[in-house]
Amino acid sequence: MRDRLTARAAIAALTTEFEELGPVLPIFAGPERLARHLAALSESPKYVQYEDDPPPCDAPHQTSRADPRRSTGQDLVESGVADHDTDGDGPLSWAGYADSRTRATARTGEEESVVHGLASVGGRSCVLVSFEFGFLGGSLGQRTGDLLEAAYEAARTRRLPLVSLIATGGSRMQEGMVALTQLQRVARASARLRAAGPAQLAVLRDPTTGGGWATLGAGADVILALPGAQVGFAGSRVRPADADPHAYTAEGQLAAGQIDAVVPPDELPETVARWLQALHAPGSPAPGPAPVPDALSATGLPVTGWDAVRQARSPSRPRAEAYLDAYFDHRLPLGGDRCGGTDPGLRCGFGRRDGRTIAYVAQCGTATRPAGYRTAARVIRLADRLGVPVLTLIDTPGAANDAEAERAGAGAAIADTFAAIAEAGVPVTTLVIGEGGSGGALALAAPGNTYVTQDSYFSVIAPESAAAILKRTPDEVRATADQLRLRPQDLVELGIARAVVRPDPSED
Asked: What are the b/e assignments for 374-393, b being 16+ CB within 10 Å?
């Protein structure tokens, strides 16, 4: 038997400030009124128990038909759903559908599978949507579409971020194609909200499958998940028998670059509050650029080109993690390219510094992979939409050039990163903190607003590769480095960099 939080208990676990919108039981749920409202729903406990729940994703696939008097949410997704005709059996005249809805209401106290309203989380306003899995498996039908569209519209007109607490088994079988087309409605509403600016944040509860995952979940700007949640387009009863169960978990989706973080329940309120603070669009006037970080190394300027290369490649040189820690008060990482890939050599996300939000993309000294460039482009475009300035830290010998990187679309990913920076309306600030290897580094550089540290270099290609292309012998690599004019002071003289950044004197 499995226990799941009801929709309202999930809301209460996140915030005590909630004002329900829509045709269903409008209330203001401050601390006292929320408590009175939950007490009034005596038939809707904090947890709904499902004796015949689908087996967990690591258990053998089994099919059983539950007693109709105690149908599971997933069974009801397969045998009945809601439409506007609440007194009938829906658009397909599915026998018993009205009775299924009546039982779902009696069990949960809800009239539909979602609740939505205005909320405040950590003092940050948002529109909040919460799914009731106990109501026909949290499935999407026509009335669900009405409520979801209303939630998106409320966020758009109020210019508030949308937070979705998702727990759904997919579209309702009893409404057939009428249910399935609700996904188009949700996608259209989401696109309208995105065009207006406000961010969308999803919290994946257990389970998040089917159309709910493929719209509200995977379509969000930031995707968080609770530990162990089932997450995937395919529900547990329609997956291949030999499918890897880990792929359908929050942890598996995180490893595949499909979600941004797995967050324990007790950390969720603070995490969501911080994200709402970071994603709040500042509006006009346009934000100023991100301040240039101070250098963390007191290494002097290199004498020769090869000296610059050696200093940049030194294992003792400060790396991106140290720069990010020194620069931000706290950070909220984003990870994954939403195409099945991650790059451990890239750090992306949003951070807070001196009371303002700054997005960051930082290379960590390794060859950047296609997934890294796609993740970077995603973050830069999100920051641009929200009016948040961007900081990029360059440190890479170049883009990954192995066969796997080519198959993964290295060229297209790099091109898209160039385009994301070229299209950005917000200011982008770049600091080269180590190696600046060819186009793989330049893709993240801000034209006209790039700075360099004393222990960095930037070159059209690494000196060794340049010598090889020019058919020079290995003993000519050092002379080639001088000819490339890749030293920090050379880059300033050439107009590639604005200045050489040095350590903060007050830190001495």
From this structure: bbbbbbbbbbbbbbbbbbbb
> What are the angstrom distances between the C-alpha of 255 and each of 19, 343, 407?
36, 10, 20
Q: How far apart are CA 164 and CA 166, in angstroms?
A: 6
Q: How many other C-beta atoms can be found within 10 angstroms of the C-beta atom of residue 57? A: 23
φ, ψ for residue 166, nearest 5 deg: -100, 135
> What is the SS3 assignment for 369?
coil
pLDDT (tens digit per residue) in 325-364: 999 999 999 999 999 999 999 999 999 999 999 999 999 9
Using the structure block, give the residue that is written with the tokens 């006292």.
32
pTM for the model: 0.85
Q: What DSSP string describes 75-130?
A: HHHHH----S-TTTTTTTT-TTHHHHHHHHHHHHS-SSSEEEEEEEETTEEEEEEE
164 φ, ψ (degrees, to nearest 5) = -115, 125
Q: Which residue has the tokens 């996608």?
A: 187
The continuous run of DSSP H or E covering 49 comes out as strand 47-50
Helix axes 142-158 and 182-196, enclosed angle (nearest 10): 0
The answer to whether 34 and 120 have CB atoms below 8 angstroms apart is no
- Residue type for position 360: Y
